[in-house]
Design brief:
Layout: E1 11-18, H1 26-42, E2 47-52, E3 59-64, E4 69-73, H2 79-92
Parallel strand pairs: 1-2
Antiparallel strand pairs: 1-3, 3-4
Length: about 90
């Protein structure tokens, strides 16, 4: 599923943390490779950061106004489900 068309005004940043080699991060790596260009073109001002570190479980962190952060585990999630999980992270973290 694709990422949200309209984002909350309070959303400042989305950070994706993945391992470059672990099977648990494979779905997230695939999602980022296929969807990053469309996300950045639809939301050019959004900080959409991808951080790689060996051996960490895949997760996403959304940062909102006032420094509030919401985190969601993505380890073992398929590429198709990552967009839905990000959407729920953003909608529930407002």
């Amino acid at each position: 599923m694709s990422f949200m068309k309209k984002l909350p005004a309070s959303l400042r940043e989305i950070r994706i943390l993945i391992c470059q080699t672990s099977p648990g991060s494979a779905g997230v790596r695939q999602y980022v490779a296929s969807q990053y260009p469309s996300i950045k073109s639809a939301h050019p001002d959004l900080k959409f950061l991808v951080r790689e570190a060996r051996g960490i479980p895949a997760r996403a962190i959304a940062r909102f106004d006032g420094g509030y952060e919401s985190e969601l585990a993505l380890d073992g999630v398929s590429a198709e489900a990552v967009g839905d999980r990000l959407r729920s992270l953003v909608e529930n973290g407002k």
